[in-house]
């Protein structure tokens, strides 16, 4: 029987007050997490303020042997003036420790893999392992299966791979979580799971899909089923959850106190839930971006199609509003800026009635 996976406290979406991470709440959450027997914290150089907040809330209060910390090396901030060594040392300083229990190449994909090679980052992290400054080496990956296969073949020294896995992305054509997982297991590595609840999206799903799980009569939440679904996969050692309230910490630590693989009936119910979610026809946008250049309102049309599809599949959801807000921060026009000129629909190879779809999306997102 495989060992039960542990819960990891993801420090990416921490609660903020006036733009700053609220270290009082973080300290309370960390105390509850540790009190209930969990130890794995996950931060990264690029999670703004997270490393320093962890130092204040945990490192400066709690003995080093009571917790483990994972940190990550980003390729996209490396340059001729900022070597892997500079970034690693800066992370050690920010966190206030002299070694990392887990250290990962952050987001290895088709673009970043050559950058890690260019700056000889793999040789550097292997040296840190030899010097005891990294206890366990891994990488997180959002690339495609052939790239994952290549990196695992070239770097047999890694012990674990962090992958985006949840019961919906398992069958998603972009994420291809099932193939990614199979590749890692074929190389005999353990798996750390990120986004087990798909950034919170799977906690709140359409009532028709939720009903498939409610029919089991256990009263358990969709989020707890989603966590147990990934926990039922062999070789999964840690499941990260980006918690930001004490309530989430309470619920997740309770789920993990006695995490059991799903029963056959529960697996069937999860499948039925997924089928229900996928039964809704979505907009067949291929993200080719032919429609973007000529849009006078500068709307990121494929981005909006993606958000609208999430609304169709999961229901009106805070996650969709969050994504919409982020699009605008990135400079995209608002849906209400559309002047219905029709330029976009005229060039769309999928013949999508874009202005009509944008109007429907706006009814949800601009209310
Ligand atoms: S119809 Fe709207 S979305 Fe399409 S090109 Fe014109 S302004 Fe942009
Ligand atoms: S042209 Fe059509 S398929 Fe291509 S990105 Fe725009 S909406 Fe999507």
Structure explained in plain terms:
There is one protein chain. The strands form 2 sheets. This protein has an 8-stranded parallel beta barrel with strand order 1-4-5-6-7-8-9-10, surrounded by 6 helices. Helix 2 links the parallel strand 4 (40-42) and strand 5. The model has no long low-confidence stretch (mean pLDDT 93). The chain has 2 domains: 6-273, TIM Barrel (Alpha-Beta Barrel), CATH 3.20.20.100; 301-365, no CATH class. It has 367 residues and is α/β, with parallel strands linked by helices. The protein has helices at 23-35, 50-59, 84-95, 112-118, 121-130, 145-154, 177-186, 207-214, 222-231, 246-257, 264-278, 301-314, 318-329, 343-347, 354-365, and strands at 6-10, 16-17, 20-21, 40-42, 68-74, 100-108, 134-141, 160-164, 190-194, 236-241. Helix 1 (23-35) runs parallel beside helix 10 (246-257), helix 6 runs parallel beside helix 7 and helix 8 (207-214) runs antiparallel to helix 11 (264-278).
């Amino acid at each position: 029987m495989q060992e039960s996976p542990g819960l990891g406290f993801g420090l990416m979406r921490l609660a903020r007050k006036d733009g700053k991470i609220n270290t009082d709440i973080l300290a309370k959450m960390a105390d509850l997490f540790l009190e209930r027997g969990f130890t794995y914290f996950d931060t990264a150089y690029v999670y703004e303020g997270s490393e320093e907040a962890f130092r204040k809330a945990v490192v400066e209060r709690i003995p080093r042997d009571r917790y483990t910390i994972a940190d990550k090396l980003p390729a996209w901030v490396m340059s001729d003036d900022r070597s892997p060594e500079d970034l690693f040392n800066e992370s050690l300083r920010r966190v206030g420790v002299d070694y990392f229990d887990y250290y990962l190449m952050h987001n290895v994909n088709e673009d970043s893999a050559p950058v890690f090679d260019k700056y000889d980052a793999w040789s550097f992290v292997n040296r840190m392992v030899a010097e005891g400054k990294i206890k366990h080496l891994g990488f997180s990956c959002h690339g495609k299966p052939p790239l994952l296969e290549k990196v695992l073949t070239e770097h047999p020294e890694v012990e674990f791979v962090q992958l985006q896995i949840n019961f919906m992305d398992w069958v998603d054509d972009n994420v291809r979580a099932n193939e990614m997982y199979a590749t890692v297991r074929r190389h005999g590595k353990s798996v750390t799971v990120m986004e087990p609840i798909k950034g919170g999206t799977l906690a709140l799903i359409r009532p028709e899909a939720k009903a498939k799980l409610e029919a089991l009569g256990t009263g358990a939440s969709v989020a707890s089923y989603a966590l147990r679904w990934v926990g039922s996969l062999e070789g999964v050692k840690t499941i990260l959850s980006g918690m930001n309230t004490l309530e989430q910490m309470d619920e997740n630590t309770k789920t993990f106190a006695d995490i059991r693989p799903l029963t056959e009936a529960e697996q069937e119910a999860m499948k039925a839930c997924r089928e229900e979610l996928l039964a809704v026809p979505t907009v067949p946008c291929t993200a080719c971006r032919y429609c973007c250049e000529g849009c006078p309102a500068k709307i990121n049309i494929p981005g909006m199609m993606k958000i609208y599809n999430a609304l169709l599949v999961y229901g009106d959801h805070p996650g969709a509003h969050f994504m919409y807000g982020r699009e605008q921060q990135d400079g995209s026009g608002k849906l209400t800026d559309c002047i219905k000129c029709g330029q976009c629909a005229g060039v769309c190879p999928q013949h999508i009635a874009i202005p009509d779809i944008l109007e429907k999306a706006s009814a949800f997102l601009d209310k």
